[in-house]
Structure formats: C-alpha cells, structure tokens
Automatic annotation (TrEMBL):
<feature type="transmembrane region" description="Helical">
    <location>
        <begin position="439"/>
        <end position="457"/>
    </location>
</feature>
<dbReference type="InterPro" id="IPR013057">
    <property type="entry name" value="AA_transpt_TM"/>
</dbReference>
<keyword id="KW-1133">Transmembrane helix</keyword>
<dbReference type="GO" id="GO:0005774">
    <property type="term" value="C:vacuolar membrane"/>
</dbReference>
<feature type="transmembrane region" description="Helical">
    <location>
        <begin position="329"/>
        <end position="354"/>
    </location>
</feature>
<dbReference type="Pfam" id="PF01490">
    <property type="entry name" value="Aa_trans"/>
</dbReference>
<feature type="transmembrane region" description="Helical">
    <location>
        <begin position="189"/>
        <end position="206"/>
    </location>
</feature>
<feature type="transmembrane region" description="Helical">
    <location>
        <begin position="149"/>
        <end position="169"/>
    </location>
</feature>
<keyword id="KW-0472">Membrane</keyword>
<feature type="transmembrane region" description="Helical">
    <location>
        <begin position="213"/>
        <end position="235"/>
    </location>
</feature>
<keyword id="KW-0812">Transmembrane</keyword>
<feature type="transmembrane region" description="Helical">
    <location>
        <begin position="84"/>
        <end position="108"/>
    </location>
</feature>
<feature type="transmembrane region" description="Helical">
    <location>
        <begin position="255"/>
        <end position="273"/>
    </location>
</feature>
<protein>
    <recommendedName>
        <fullName>Amino acid transporter transmembrane domain-containing protein</fullName>
    </recommendedName>
</protein>
<feature type="domain" description="Amino acid transporter transmembrane">
    <location>
        <begin position="54"/>
        <end position="457"/>
    </location>
</feature>
<feature type="transmembrane region" description="Helical">
    <location>
        <begin position="285"/>
        <end position="309"/>
    </location>
</feature>
<feature type="transmembrane region" description="Helical">
    <location>
        <begin position="398"/>
        <end position="418"/>
    </location>
</feature>
C-alpha cells in the first residue's frame, strides 16, 4: 500500500487493501466512498450481510410499527383537537403526520446509506446519527461520538417517560370500570398504578421482537375492537358541542403539536424493527411497511380526534375512553380492551431503552450473570415507571410534557439535523431545498419544545391551584 504496483497495464495508486480485484480485467469500475477511491470492488450491500437470529416477517414488522404508533396516544387525539379546533385539527393532523413519516423515512434512508460507507450490516438510531457526523463534513466529524451518546441517553429517557404514560393509562381505565362494581372500595389512581406492577414485570421479561409478534397481533385486535366501540359512542347521536371551536387560540397550538407528535411518533422502535426484518427492502418505498402503517395511523387519528372532539367538546379527557358511559357494559369492555392492548405493548416500548442499557453493560458483566442481570434491569425499569406514574397521575399533562420535551426533539429535530449533515457534501438538492425543508422542520420542533413545555407547566400550575384538596394542604403548610 502507498506504493505503485503494475499489473496487466493497470496502475494502482494508494490502493485500499480491503478492495477485491476481479480476475477479468474487462470488467473494471470505479466508485467513490467518502474520499477513498475503490477500484473493481462491488458496492457493499448491508442487507446481504445481516445475520438476524430471529428475523421478523414483513407483516410482523407492519404489526410492530402499527402497534408502536397506535398506542394510548390515539385516544388522546380528541384532547389534541381541543387545543387546535376542528378545522385546524384536521389540517394539522395530516400535516404533522406527513412530517413524522418524512422524518422516519430520512432517518432510515440515512442509516442504509451510512451502513454502506461504514461497511456495517445495520445500525441503531444513535449509531446512525453518529455515523452521519462521522462520514459528514470534516469539521463535524469530531462530534460523532458525542452525538451518538447524546441520542442514546435521550432515547432511553424518552421511552422510559412514555412507559409512565402507559402505566397511568392502564390504571385510569381499570379504575373507571372497577369503581362501578366496587363503589365502597374506591382505590386511588396511585393504587391502581401499583397493581399493574406484577403483570408489567412479567411482560417486560419478553426480550425478542419475534416473540412479541403474537402480543402485538392480539393488541392490534383489541385496538380495532376498542376503536369500533369508541367510534360507536362518538357517532351515536352525534351533535356538535357548542364549545367545540373551529379554530382554537394560537397559544394552544403548541400543545396540539406536542400531543400529536407523542401519539404518532415511533422513532425509537423504527430502527430495531427495520434491522430485524427478514426483507428490509420492504420497509421503505411504495407501498412499503412505513407508508402503509402511517397511512392507517394518520387516518385513524384524524377520525378519532375530529369526531371525538365534536361529541365531547371541551369536556374531553386525556383518553377519550374515559368519556364513555361508566355504567354501560360495552363502554367498560372498550376500556378494559384498550388497557390490555397497552399492557401487551409495554414490552415493545421497553425494547428500545433496554437495547441501549444492555449494550452499555453486557461487556462489563460475566456471561453467566447475563440472564439474571437482564431480569433485574427490566424489573427495575418497570418499578421506576410505576413510581413516576403514581407521582404524576395526570394523563393529559404527562402526554403533553413527553411530546413537547422528548419526542419533538428526537422525532423531528434530530432527523432534520442528521439529514442535513449527511447530505451537506452530497448535495442538498435544487436551490438547497433539503436545507430549507429541514430548517422548517427544526422550527416546528423548537416551537413544540419551548412553547409546548411552557404551556403544559402553566396548565399544571393552574390545575394544582384549582384542586381544593391540594390547595388546602398548601395553605396548611404555609400557616
């Protein structure tokens, strides 16, 4: 290497030792990867080098993606429409859905392209972000490790926070049903959060995506039934509530954005799902797993959000199932089915933070203790989510905060930055349209982050002030 070698009239300068020459000199080609010139080397295909122990089918991957996006957030859509109004809710739902889909697309596309440059079969979310900087502009390459670590920890915090939403959701739905049959023994939401501990610990021990497919399929069936029952009550004698506005105050729009982003965004599970597909070529493209899943998601979210707000108006709760009749058996069935669907989804959401945590720890622990360590970490994660959920048992507040702080940053801002860095030296399109597009997405993300967080905290303060029990406690403390 570094010298000059002559063979059959071909001169090779600074030839890469990893390249493979074809024996037939009549088939010569040159391609450039980064700044390295490679001659007569077949382009690296990451799909050919993937060795997944338990690959997931295309339909199984579609079920996982649908389940990761069609969680408790879909039932928060009427509350989201309350913060936007009927007209702006419909427009905003389609617009935010398109933006979320596009951000997932550019992230996966970037991952597949940097896998070729890095000659790796697959990459996770954080690895993709770090590699985009590593193979991007020279001045940004020293930041690659920081970006990877930051995204890793941010993603872990995001999904651990989302698990708290799941616990509150399960607890509130079970509480509404069981309070009807045990009116003299009404337990608090915190008590129901504690009761979810045992089943969640058991569910959390399922570690393989392939083994989670049946649970995702069952959860999707429960979701469809629950949506059907919910839509029945929504469309039954559908009047437009007098307080249902066409266009809500602009000051509430950031809450709408943060709630919709929380509901739709499954950015953290996208890369694990794509990486474990038996045929990853089917993830992008048309129709593709991504496009089919997001079309279903946006349509269902729009229907539930629009008609749910039209029916219940400003009285709508953080989960529209909580607005269904308490004494009606059919409504109670919907609440139980939705709670069980979220319960079966818990392990899928836990998969993302566990992947990061275990990657950091597995090389530091003796192999014989790997299994017991996994059990301990997963149990600790469940216990932590239950404790935090019990501390803040307000579903709408937790959803707004999670969407504004975490998912707007990771789901919108991060893909926009990664796409810009990755294409900086490769071309930003005609009149730099990719740059302007990503700046626009970043602005939406920052609006949701700052304004959404501020308004959510302000609402929290107002609810505390309006709570007579808590206000009495605070007055006692002051005196």
């Amino acid at each position: 290497m570094g010298g000059v070698e002559k063979k059959d009239g071909i001169v090779l300068n600074n030839f890469n030792s990893t390249a493979n020459l074809t024996s037939n000199s009549g088939f010569q080609s040159t391609l450039t990867l980064g700044s390295k010139e490679v001659i007569n080397e077949k382009a690296y295909d990451p799909f050919e080098h993937r060795n997944v122990e338990h690959p997931t089918s295309t339909m199984g991957s579609l079920a996982h993606l649908l389940k990761s996006s069609l969680g408790s957030g879909v039932l928060a859509m009427p509350a989201a429409f309350k913060n936007a109004g009927l007209v702006m809710g419909v427009i905003g739902n389609i617009f935010i859905g398109f933006i979320c889909t596009h951000c997932v697309y550019v992230l996966v596309k970037t991952s597949q392209e940097v896998c070729v440059e890095a000659k790796k079969p697959s990459m996770g979310f954080a690895e993709t972000c770090g590699a985009a900087f590593e193979f991007g502009p020279k001045k940004l390459r020293p930041w690659s490790n920081f970006v990877r670590i930051f995204v890793d920890y941010a993603l872990t915090c995001t999904y651990l926070a989302a698990l708290c939403v799941y616990v509150v959701f399960i607890a509130e739905n079970f509480k509404q049903v069981l309070d009807v049959y045990a009116p003299n023994d009404n337990l608090s939401v915190q008590a129901y959060c504690a009761l979810t501990l045992v089943p969640l610990v058991l569910m959390s021990q399922i570690r393989n995506l392939k083994w989670l497919v049946p649970f995702s399929a069952i959860a999707n069936v429960f979701l469809v039934i629950c949506f059907g029952i919910t839509l029945y009550y929504i469309f039954k004698d559908l009047p437009v509530k007098s307080e249902a506005t066409m266009v809500a105050s602009v000051s509430k729009w950031p809450l709408f954005i943060s709630t919709v982003v929380f509901a739709m965004e499954g950015i953290g599970v996208v890369m694990p799902i794509e990486n474990e597909m038996a045929k990853p070529q089917h993830f992008l493209g048309c129709p593709g797993v991504l496009n089919v899943a997001m079309t279903v998601v946006v349509t269902l979210y729009g229907l539930v959000g629009l008609f749910g707000y039209m029916t219940f108006g400003d009285t709508v709760h953080g989960s529209v199932t909580l607005n269904l009749p308490k004494d009606d058996v059919l409504a109670q069935a919907a609440k139980i089915l939705m709670a069980l669907a979220i319960l079966f989804t818990y392990s899928l959401q836990l998969y993302v933070p566990m992947e990061m945590i275990w990657r950091q720890l597995k090389d530091k622990i003796t192999v014989r203790y790997h299994n017991i360590t996994q059990i301990a970490i997963r149990t600790a994660a469940v216990v932590g989510s239950v404790i935090l959920a019990a501390a803040i048992p307000n579903l709408e507040l937790v959803i707004n905060l999670c969407g504004a702080i975490f998912l707007s940053t990771l789901g919108l801002l991060t893909p926009a930055i990664v796409d810009t860095v990755h294409n900086w030296d490769r071309g930003l399109g005609f009149f730099y349209w990719k740059l302007f597009k990503n700046i626009f997405i970043a602005m939406i993300s920052l609006l949701a982050f700052f304004a959404g967080t501020f308004i959510a905290i302000q609402d929290m303060v107002n609810k505390i002030s309006a709570d007579p029990v808590l206000e009495k406690h605070l007055n006692t403390t002051r005196s």
